[in-house]
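INFO  loader      accepted 1 record
INFO  loader      residues=766
INFO  predictor   begin
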Amino acid sequence: MPLTPLVVLLLLLSHCAAAQVAIGEWRDHFSYENAKRVDFGNGRVYAAYNNAVGYYDIDEDAVWRMSKCNKKLSDVGVSTIAYDSTTRSLVVAYGNANIDIVQDDRLYNVGDLKRSTMAGNKQIYDIAFYKKHAYLATGAGLVIVDLVRHEIETSCQITTDEVSSAVYAVAIDGSTIYAATADGLYTIDRDNRFPNISDRWQRDVSSLLAGRAIRQLQLNGDALLALVQEEGSTYSLFRRSSGGDYIPVAGGEIISVRCRYGYTAVTYYDHVDVYDASYELAYSRDKFTWGDMQLNDAVCDKGGALWVGHTWAGLVKFDSKGRDKTYNPEGLSSDNVYSITAFNDKTYICPGGKTTTNTNLGIQNSICYYDKNGWHNIDNRSGRKIYDYLQVAVNPTNPSQMAAASWGNGIALIEDDVVTALYDDSNSNGAIVALTMEGWHHVRTAAVAFDREGTLWATNSLAVNALVERRSDGSWHSYETQSMVGDNEVDKLVCDSVTGYKWFCGRSNRIFVHDGRSRKAYVNANNGSRLETGRINCMTQDRSGDIWIGTDKGIKIIFDGHRAFANGGNGELSPVNCSNIVISNGEFVEYLMAYEEVTCIAVDGANRKWVGTATGGVYLLSATGLEELQHFTADNSPLPSNKIVYICVQPRSGEVFIGTDYGIVGYRSTSTYGTTLTSGNAYAFPNPVRPDYEGPIAVKNLTNNALIHITDAAGHVVFTTTADGGQAIWNGRTNSGERVAGGVYYVFASDSEGGNRSVAKILVIR
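INFO  predictor   done
INFO  writer      dumping tokens
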């Protein structure tokens, strides 16, 4: 039976809606390339990544993700995973000692160990199972978790000479529980009712393993395998024979040992050796079809296929013929983030960095960008290695052209998402200068920005001429700044969209301003301020033309930037004020965010401010800053951390990209960037509105702050509102709060003067 046009339309709209994130929802943009641990269960192959768990569903032949953002996990910083087939439980352990139990896709959090004050580092190294319990080897001993009641049942401290030992691995066979420590192997009867009593544990004092540091344990049938640390990163693998003696199996820089289905996989950094049931070497894998091995873990499945956890290729399967294939959720190549830039429908991530003392981190990951087709890498064809990308800028007069600043290598020119050239002191006509010392050569370009005419501006830290210009004709120029900047590093840059001035600063308490020709001055961040600060962390210009400044003690604003050179413009102190915003709270008065260190500020389409902090998460402030609209933390939201590195608002989708020290997440906000003139392409999302949908309905591609009227098919107005920037929100109800009936609704939008009209349709299904 052929589909009717209406059914086809509904299917298309439903598909489009599924590809986007709903307003008010979160999603992760984590890296799924460093697979640290692999396990099997419930028809799935699980892989533990830095901040999430991914899995390949064998029956569906599909890859899925589990993270804090989709509420499948409760935390970030995964340390290890293990699956228990008896209770159908995936146990996820985190670096902070938090524990998740995922049973049939339902999440249960066990946070007692994380919150406890017990001695030791509490790091979870290994997990074993017995009788619906998980036995966790930790830095503070053995912790037993009831997988049915989802709680810690007891903890066991294993002591040597009254000193508690860290337990690095645990194994349980038909009669015994084994615990591996730095002082050797400890055992206890499997059904002993008091494993929490230290005296019940017996220390091995007579075997080959006695007194040796054991880091991993595995059971292969009845045989116990122990990985013993020798010196540094060198290990020896032993197996216990039927007579009780320990026989060497392998040695070297072993990373992991996994026994499954009669196979023993011994993983080294650059290869895997797989042994059969007789401990004869069955085969080795040391190459992918596309590169070298750089491994964390490897384990064989029931069919004999080898699954490995790779440091930059994620989860990889080798079949019986040695053919390889990757199974990873889509994501970034790295969780490192220094800055985020959005232009049109693309969002760019610079993964590089530098320390607070301005030394390199040596990150070589390329710039990534996100569009409707997912994540991509910028291709480097410059012929030179580039480290520590700090910022990217898009030319507004030619969006196919970009520039990127690197800390150490210079400025990369990017055409159509390909690095075509790298400019430094050798090819910029003397504009860019390297810092040299005893053979050390370092080009400290940290910030780039295009002005409205398409001229590229950049900072060249610690150079006499720290402000650099590349004009559209390709010529390079620089401007003297040493007389006012001195020895201050400069790594922030704003091209003023109103005056055309260039504002730049570092982490000192000074802001520098240049007109791009001859006038220059510096601004004291405490001039005109009642709250003295000591450090500037960020600057941005809002849609009203004001400069917002994030400091170690909250926010300051420059309202009078046009007065920058009122004292002459010869490098002297400018009269410009850096004003505090005063918040009145009843009888108390305080300064805006005075108790927070502000690390970044982003402006959305409604001129609201998204403010990132060093320890307090993310704040959404009204356009004036006088009202706190939202406050997201790691406790009340999917934020992976309260330490915010950078925030950027995608102008077309309204997604807020939030970079933290644990990676990037996205939050779909209510505001997008509007236009001065209507594009005629206004549309609603989701559309159609399904019967079970209760969330917000967004109307997008509107003129700035448009007036919105929503009518029914008969022309009766059911709802009126005003857009936030280029997007309006409807709750699917009338102005009086009643849920609308099913049918077609029409959206009529116009600017404040009644012009620039837009029309859209919304289908509501009841």
